[in-house]
């Protein structure tokens, strides 16, 4: 195992993050505050409660998830796409490093950034609402698993993308709608029965539901199913990455 | 001693059907400098990329330090450094961090003293905190060299190292190459410039259309090159070379219409003056004189043409 390479990639990626710390920090804080103003105060003033939870507090897990998923995906996809774009990918192909080590370095860094942003948003949220987290450990575990699995997804997108437009395509067309339709701002039980069934096919539902469970002790789907879903998703992404490196697809001619 | 790089019947056909390497076999000895000479698209870069593991071979085998580059890739790659043709660098990172990163990728422990001496050798020390994007093209190439040497490779590949490079950098680069040679590092470079290959390479390989046409020691090639022919057209044909003219290198050609004298331009005495004096003494009338030489350029062009 080439840990030197893992650490070199991780550090180089984190250095990029710290170079743009202000942007990395400020944009999620501002967008979260906006969500609270719009959903928490304006709409929340009319909805009051969802399943016995104040609406402003109810949306916190969904908001954190929304940012974490988009940040993890875009960070990881950009991180691996950029060397392809500048041509420095040759160094990763040349060095004595395996796919596992490359993935660990890039995905580890992207997940760290996403985790950081998730925690910042959570901290921002406490400025607007009273939050009690029922099982902090489960909350952290869900957050971490989401950071990792969506960084893996971003990594795949970055390898697949041939230009900057494609890099934006999946997050814009797939992830954002799935998150918005995944119960970020409402409970699945509020939907008509037919749509409740459709929603069951949205993987993000399971993540947000499980994450919300760790805050309030109640969920749209059983917590075990949520755990299974996110583990399955992580395993699927890992499998795809393993295949990509095995065949050299879009990387090694 | 077994060769440090051993290439056996290597073929590479790209997905589009283009055959870049067509059965290349080549042994490179440890510590030698070998220059691969060939026109654009000859397969030089593909050959290097395949040895380095960037491109997967379609057939044949490559060993570096006795390790197969496909099966035993980790050990093989550990020995290799590459300076690519393109100026591919992380633009937002500093010179120092770029070099450190490359060292890290090869799992070498931190060694700031070595990196400092490396950057000083390449006149990069003053620029160590500059971002790569702020550097000129020549400086960027120096950074590429520093990155390739950051982990102290045993085998160094230089792909067109002096294409578009100024005199200053060329001098610096050859100084570094000299030092590496002293340390026993094996160097494989590709180039368009014949003089460059002559100046530093122990052996020269000519490659065209994916095949190695010739690999020869540089002196050997130079000797072939250093030979010149003096053609003496006679006013009257001779049936036989007169006794007084007979010597090594003189031949009667074209049915006695001309004499051709082959001589070594590097020799202390070419023998031309003596030959001309003897010609006069023998009473032969000269119609014309001409000389021709075979430069590496000509050998090279000839080989490539023959192949086409």
TrEMBL record, chain A:
Keyword Ribosomal protein listed: no
Domain ABC transmembrane type-2 per the UniProt entry, residue ranges: 19-248
Locations listed in the record: Cell inner membrane; Membrane
Membrane topology summary: Multi-pass membrane protein
PROSITE patterns (UniProt xref): ABC_TM2
Membrane spanning stretches: 20-40, 52-69, 89-107, 114-133, 139-160, 167-188, 223-245
Coiled coil start-end: none
Presence of the UniProt keyword Transport in the record: yes
A GO cellular-component term linked to this record: ATP-binding cassette (ABC) transporter complex
An annotated Gene Ontology molecular function: ABC-type transporter activity
Alphabetized UniProt keyword annotations: Cell membrane, Membrane, Transmembrane, Transmembrane helix, Transport
Alphabetical list of Pfam families matching this protein: ABC2_membrane
Entry-linked NCBIfam families: PRK15066.1
Protein family per UniProt: Belongs to the ABC-2 integral membrane protein family.
Protein name: Transport permease protein
Organism: Limimaricola pyoseonensis
TrEMBL record, chain B:
Organism expressing this protein natively: Limimaricola pyoseonensis
The protein's name in its UniProt record: ABC-2 type transport system ATP-binding protein
Keyword terms: ATP-binding, Nucleotide-binding, Transport
Domain ABC transporter: 5-234
Superkingdom classification of source: Bacteria
Molecular functions per Gene Ontology: ATP binding; ATP hydrolysis activity
SUPFAM superfamilies linked to this entry: P-loop containing nucleoside triphosphate hydrolases
